[in-house]
Structure to design on (360 residues):
């Protein structure tokens, strides 16, 4: 008698009418496939988180269309991009940092620094292209210095970027305390002119640039070695180092990207509001973090999509639009709602993360 002869017969599962019996092995294979699909698609995956954010956005916008007249107009939806272009760019930079498990608290202050520098240099008669280059270089330089301190000195990102926030805000006040109006012809033309779309709708140049930044960031994260290293560091920095990946260069690089995006966000905000002021952007870094988390990026790093951050910003913009359309609610309800959503998404990430670990 062979070993195969002593194997117990497979359990037979009752067949449906007109069908054939299914064995326990086939059932186990089907269950394994389902578990694999859950791990890769729903439990804890970036795709699932983005889908949840997209559904939330559709529900909020649909509720507004039903509740308020004219809310469902296409231009109202496009205005979410127009009015939040600077925050979209800011959230893109924050996504890179959070994917590595870091944080950047200096973003809002760098936005203010960008507006003040642009306004002051334009007031002094500098050409607009030179002003733009100087502002972007300053943001990238600040990000590079913070990245060096975080990686080279092994300091906590929270402390380093908090120091960067105070530094950038202090430089703002050193340059100018009062608000500085921007009257440059180039900045004014960019602020006034729009990109015409079918149906009498339009997008601002700032919104178009923000979408381009999202597309470039998505390509970098998913189609380049640098992007793959970002995800690897967020998953396990020690494992990434053992694999021979450029951990140090990448960690410094994400803060350079964040600083660059913050400065670019400052330029977009200065075009949007046509002024530079030291108190611009207070708390804006928290809005960016909230948008990134609501978009599905995990705070501990390693998982998230730039598309999710874009949707997160649109969710925040939709909440503000709903409160504006109501007219009777205090603007602080925006903060309350965002706080509740942020808590819900953090709990969702925690639960799905546990289910993913259990399933594996």
């Amino acid at each position: 008698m062979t070993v195969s002869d002593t194997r117990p017969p497979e359990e037979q599962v009752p067949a449906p009418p007109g069908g054939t019996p299914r064995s326990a092995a086939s059932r186990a294979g089907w269950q394994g496939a389902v578990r694999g699909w859950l791990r890769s698609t729903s439990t804890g995956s970036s795709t699932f988180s983005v889908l949840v954010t997209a559904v939330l956005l559709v529900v909020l916008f649909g509720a507004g269309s039903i509740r308020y007249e004219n809310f469902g107009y296409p231009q109202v939806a496009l205005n979410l991009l127009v009015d939040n272009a600077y925050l979209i760019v800011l959230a893109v930079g924050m996504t890179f940092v959070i994917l590595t498990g870091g944080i950047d608290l200096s973003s809002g202050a760098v936005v203010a620094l960008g507006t003040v520098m642009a306004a002051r240099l334009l007031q002094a008669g500098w050409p607009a292209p030179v002003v733009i280059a100087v502002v972007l270089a300053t943001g990238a330089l600040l990000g590079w210095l913070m990245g060096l301190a975080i990686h080279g000195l092994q300091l906590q990102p929270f402390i380093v970027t908090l120091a960067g926030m105070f530094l950038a805000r202090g430089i703002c006040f050193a340059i100018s305390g009062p608000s500085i109006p921007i009257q440059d012809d180039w900045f004014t033309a960019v602020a006034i002119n729009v990109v015409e779309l079918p149906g009498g709708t339009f997008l601002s140049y700032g919104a178009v640039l923000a979408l381009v930044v999202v597309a470039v960031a998505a390509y970098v994260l998913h189609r380049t070695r640098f992007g793959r290293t970002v995800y690897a560091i967020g998953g396990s920095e020690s494992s990434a180092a053992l694999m021979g990946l450029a951990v140090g260069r990448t960690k410094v690089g994400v803060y350079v990207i964040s600083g660059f995006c913050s400065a670019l966000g400052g330029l977009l905000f200065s075009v949007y509001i046509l002024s530079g002021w030291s108190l611009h952007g207070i708390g804006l870094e928290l809005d960016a973090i909230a948008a990134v988390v609501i978009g599905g990026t995990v705070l501990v790093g390693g998982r998230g999509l730039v598309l999710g951050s874009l949707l997160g910003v649109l969710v925040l913009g939709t909440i503000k639009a709903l409160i504006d359309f109501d007219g009777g609610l205090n603007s602080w309800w925006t903060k309350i709602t965002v706080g509740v959503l942020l808590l819900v998404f953090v709990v969702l990430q925690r639960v799905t993360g546990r289910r993913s670990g259990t399933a594996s």
The radius of gyration is 25 Å. The longest strand covers residues 194-197.
